[in-house]
Amino acid sequence: MSNATAPEARSDPAARLVAAAGPLFYREGVATGVDALCRAAGVSKRTMYQLFASKDEVIAAGLDQWADTIRALMWPPDDHPGGPRERVLAVFAALEAASGDPEFRGCPFVAAAVEVKDSDHPAAVVARRHKEALTGFFATEARRGGAADPDGLAAALTIVYDGSSARAVVLARPLDGLAVATATTLLDAAGLR
């Protein structure tokens, strides 16, 4: 999962820090030091602390910005030709594809929240917001598809997504259809055709 840096971000030190933070902390973990972050962004530590009150702020901002990249890679576009079922399964198909990438480290939001271990940490707050957005996407599609309990289905689909992502990381191998098959079983049980 890569993140291209916009041309205007190259000259703005705050933008460079934020742009570097998402991919760096995804690859290396949020315990990665300020020195590595500043090196990746081409910014001095002094400048970083003039722009941000703490590394935690940079982690949260980087994760928040990187969410757009993740969403573009993992969610179907608004003009996706399929109905609700196909749109939900597209997310799982994207997860399946990502799980085969040697750079795949699982869901960046789950990884950050687990690593910081504090539900009030700025990165955990950002992670929670983006996980809620994924669940919201599933709930919207479940409603469109006529599911009897769209919120319950959405929560279950999010659990399958997160569990599948974790499985791929822990076992260090692609999902090989497991995520799509499990999501399909849930959609079938919910009557989402």
* Computed Rg: 18 Å
Average pLDDT confidence is 92
* CATH overall fold name of the largest domain: Tetracycline Repressor, domain 2
> CATH superfamily of the largest domain, please?
Tetracycline Repressor, domain 2
Percent helix, as a range, is 55-70%
State the distance separating the first and last CA atoms: 31 Å
Label the structural class.
mainly alpha
Unreliable runs: 2-9
Helix-strand topology string? HHHHHHHHH
The percent range for strand residues is under 5%
Number of helices: 9
CATH first level of the largest domain = Mainly Alpha
Biggest sheet, in brief? none
Which geometry do the CA atoms define? elongated
Task: Quickly give the CATH architecture of the largest domain.
Answer: Orthogonal Bundle
| Number of strand elements | 0
How many structural domains are formed by the residues? 2
Protein name: Regulatory protein TetR
Domain HTH tetR-type: 11-70
Pfam families: TetR_N (PF00440)
DNA-binding region: 33-52
